[in-house]
Write the structure tokens for this entry.
Amino acid sequence: MSSLPFAADNSPAPQGAGLPTPAFSPLYQQIKGLILQSLQQGEWKPGESIPSEMELAARFRVSQGTVRKAIDELAAENLVVRRQGKGTFVATHAEQHVQYRFLKLLPDTGDASVEGPAQRSVIDCRRVRASADISRVLALRSGDPVMQAKRILSFAGVPTILEDIWLPGHAFKGLTGEQMANYQGPTYAMFEIDFGVRMVRAEEKIRAVLPDAEQAQLLQVSTATPLLSVERIAYTYNDVPMELRRGLYRTDTHHYRNELS
């Protein structure tokens, strides 16, 4: 990956050609794409430093300002982290300030860091064949292997979140319930370290629901207790879906908080 692809030609197509006009890609966007390609291929691992702006400018034969603009966008998307006087590093879920990036349920009093990490109880973790709806979400073929896990997250001994998680079997081969339960850091950090999969963004659908009898028993609530249903699809680089997570959240002592900008 040492050469820069040509920018798309945005000149009009010959009349009658019936072809759409290619979109022009700014140079910094092309550099951003090349850096993303290196991240996806694992050239620089989570937590590792990437080459300096000067080195990347020489590598891609562009100005340092063009590289800086590309890295600015990557930093804004939480894909890399700038550290004053130290350089630019591949972002990782193991870092303290991003540990709760995808967990938006916060205690009504205090904050997540004061409350401490959730206690995990893994009910089940096994390799199964993907159903039609799961395979569609994870861009797999129906019947492809997936890892399916069910767990409860408790805070101060109170079961608060019930989760069902599906992961592509080829990327998470060998994942066990003990591994998920015993890892001390965030689960997404474990995915990075043990399986080389970094979740870089997520989409969520949220609605209010009532639990069925089994769900109510696991969360120690009545079937008349309203819960927050959160369905999350998490993606790795280049928008490849790598996780489907369906969670039921108690909100009697916690609330769902999101920042919009």
